[in-house]
Write a structure and sequence with these properties.
Among the domains are: 69 residues, Roll (Luciferase, domain 3); 122 residues, 2-Layer Sandwich (GMP Synthetase, Chain A, domain 3). The strands form 9 sheets. Strands 5-4-17-16-18-19-20 form a 7-stranded mixed β-sheet, with helices on both faces. The protein has 18 helices and 30 strands. The chain is α/β, with parallel strands linked by helices. Helix content is 32%, strand content 24%. α4 packs across α5 and α6 packs across α7. The structure holds 5'-O-[(S)-ethoxy(hydroxy)phosphoryl]adenosine.
Length: 637
């Protein structure tokens, strides 16, 4: 496969960028010509930001799996599509060729169909990071069902909320997942979640860790037995369903500033073009390379840069089941060496954590095949950037700092590896098609250089969010209302003298903990469910490894004679209702929270205290209860 739209130098980037904004239809229409369509589009783009109504490639018909699988069969059917590195380094690596993956996806599409899943149905997938997860995702797309992958670390309650919101009728899971030295009993978590979900009538279970599970007659079926039936039927070819360009491809739930996670919706054609184009350009992918993205498919990064981006380009995508620090902190480097990885894409939190183990884990690991390093998910601090550059990239491997979001479908602001300039801690320049604007609190666009403001995107791009599932008003309200006619990212940003962008972090009530988005309201709601908790407030504070840590201020009315037990109970509650990722790092019991006279919690003050900047609290005299600030400061942990 060749990529005539792969940008090769800075000058070409500037030309392409200009054309993409001057003539988006011509620009994206030309790129789209390089995909497989069942029917071409009538119009390239139509958009009305006021109603959050954007359509790309309207009138076209396609199936994304034909672009990720079928079109590679003739010239690279025997190339490895998925390279699977199991949790346990002593277990066998799996290499799945494009031909094999095509076959397995079609067989599993039959399984779904035989179990009553139809085009347009929603299927929730809750599995570990194993090839079958990618197969399940692609089989949904083959058949035209909408997949919604749920990260393996979410609790039964979180899963149930998502399944109900999506009104899913089928769940695909495993008996359990391996994570380092631990196993996670996925099927039993699903069983708990399904107690409150009456839309689900089928659960397909992949037997991965051979742990006993209870199978419910009529509802639950074993993956392998169902695939056997398909193979025995003799008819394994599953034609790719014809999808309209704007048919839903997937829903992915993400946290916002209100309590309930929202289902970000991506549709077929625009997302495909965007995931592919950004993959090929940002990482400067060359045929034959091995791409190792360490994200989980439960997050958008896994969707776009483990599954759809790499596979649409015919790449070898490395899927790793385990964790970076088990059996030891050299695991990523060992994998890079063993599989001769060309592109490594990971998160600042992983870099910071591995940095903490020093050079020892790097001993004897050959990293010389690496050609591109990437980071995503949170701002990267200078120290981590330089460590990554020096110790991993040996100061000769370009680092791409890629800024984007679940809602944007793919990378939005990033250097193109080795093609456009990099600058430590800067995401740098927008990709073609992306029109960033910095806006002040009153909605005025901030022009010029050396400025900062709230980051908006002024024009539609192919991979943008189309709606929030089941509630379009919420999509308008969340993303298109703060600044009329613009998409608001929720991030603060600065633009330096050269026009390079640096993302400074969220400006809304969303925390970024280890690169995971966590809504403060969601955590507060969970804590408030604990018997005896009257009220709570969550803020973020700087954390050496996680980027941000979670600080909880909790008013408790019950027996608090054993505060340690109480805190452990609160952590347990959060784990049960959301998942371990949302557990506060610090809990301070307080008798009150600082409030304005209208009763609003003054988070700014709580944030300053948690950040250890109590000298910057400012005037508290206008508060309803200034005395609680003193009390909180006195007991600050
Ligand atoms: C943050 C992850 C700084 C940002 C793909 C954004 C970043 C949120 C970067 C989206 C980066 C992501 N530099 N901050 N390179 N990349 N972020 O939806 O705050 O899980 O809004 O998508 O992560 O997180 P999400």
């Amino acid at each position: 496969m060749n990529f005539p739209y792969q940008i090769k130098n800075l000058e070409q980037y500037q030309q392409e960028y200009k054309r993409s904004l001057d003539d988006p239809s011509g620009f994206w229409g030309d790129i789209a010509e390089h995909f497989t369509w069942k029917k071409k589009w009538d119009t390239v783009v139509q958009s009305d930001f006021h109603h959050a109504d954007t359509r790309w490639f309207e009138g076209a018909q396609l199936n994304i799996t034909e672009n990720c699988l079928d079109r590679h069969l003739a010239d690279r059917g025997d190339h490895t599509a998925i390279l699977f590195e199991p949790n346990d380094p002593n277990k066998e690596v799996q290499k799945i060729s494009y031909a094999e993956l095509h076959k397995r996806v079609m067989e599993f599409a039959w399984v779904l169909k035989n179990n009553g899943v139809k085009k347009g149905d929603r299927v929730c997938i809750y599995m570990g990071m194993i090839p079958e997860l990618a197969i399940a995702v692609l089989a949904c797309a083959r058949l035209g069902a909408v997949h919604s992958v749920i990260f393996g670390g979410f609790s039964a309650q979180s899963i149930s909320d998502r399944i109900q919101d999506a009104q899913a009728n089928c769940v695909i899971t495993c008996d359990g997942a391996n994570r380092g030295a631990k196993t996670i009993p996925l099927k039993s978590v699903i069983d708990d979640a399904l107690v409150s979900c009456n839309t689900v009538n089928k659960v397909i279970v992949y037997d991965h860790i051979q742990t006993p599970v209870s199978m419910i007659k009529g509802r639950d079926a074993w993956w392998n037995e169902e695939v056997d039936k398909v193979q025995q039927s003799g008819n394994t070819y599953f034609p790719a369903e014809s999808m309209d360009a704007e048919d839903l491809l997937f829903i992915l739930y993400t946290s916002g500033s209100t309590g309930k996670p929202k289902g970000v919706v991506h549709t077929t054609a625009g997302y495909m073009v965007w995931a592919h184009y950004t993959f090929v350009n940002v990482f400067q992918y060359q045929p034959g390379q091995v791409h190792f993205c360490t994200a989980d498919i439960g997050w958008i990064t896994g969707h776009s840069y483990i599954v759809y981006g790499p596979l649409s380009a015919g790449a070898t995508t490395l899927m790793f089941e385990g964790v970076p620090t088990w059996p030891d902190a050299g695991r990523f480097w060992e994998i890079t060496d063993k599989h001769q990885v060309d592109i490594l894409y990971t998160a600042p939190t992983a870099i910071r954590s591995l940095m903490g183990f020093g050079k020892e884990p790097l001993q004897g690991k050959d990293l010389s095949t690496l050609k591109v390093l990437g980071t995503v998910g949170e701002p990267i601090n200078s120290e981590a950037w330089h460590w990554y550059d020096k110790e991993i990239g040996k100061e000769k491997t370009p680092i791409v700092d890629t800024w984007w979001q679940t809602e944007t479908g793919g990378i939005m602001i990033s250097n193109l590896a080795g093609v456009t300039p990099s600058k430590p801690t800067y995401a740098t320049l927008p990709l073609p098609g992306i029109a960033p604007e910095l806006v002040d609190e009153n909605g005025n666009v901030i022009e010029g250089m050396d400025v900062s403001g709230n980051l908006c995107i002024a024009k539609p791009w192919p991979g943008m969010i189309r709606t929030t599932y089941g509630n379009h008003e919420r999509c308008i309200e969340t993303y298109f209302s703060a600044y009329k006619g613009k998409y608001f990212t929720g991030d603060g940003c600065l633009r330096d003298a050269e026009g390079m962008y640096r993302i400074t972090g969220r400006v809304d009530d969303v925390l970024n903990v280890s690169g995971h988005r966590i809504g403060t309201a969601e955590v507060e709601n969970a804590i408030n469910m604990h018997e005896g908790v009257v009220e709570s407030a969550i803020v973020g504070y700087p954390h050496d490894v996680k980027g941000q840590g979670i600080y909880a201020y909790v008013i408790f009315s019950g027996d608090s004679s054993n505060p340690d037990l109480l805190k452990a109970d609160i952590l347990q509650t959060v784990s049960r209702l959301i998942g371990p990722i949302a557990k506060p790092d610090k809990i301070q019991l307080v008798s009150g929270l600082p409030k304005t006279r209208s009763g609003k919690i003054m988070r700014r003050i709580l944030r300053k205290i948690a950040e250890g900047e109590s000298d910057k609290i400012g005037d508290t005299s206008t508060l309803l209860n200034p005395e609680v600030v003193d009390e909180i400061l006195l007991n600050f942990i």
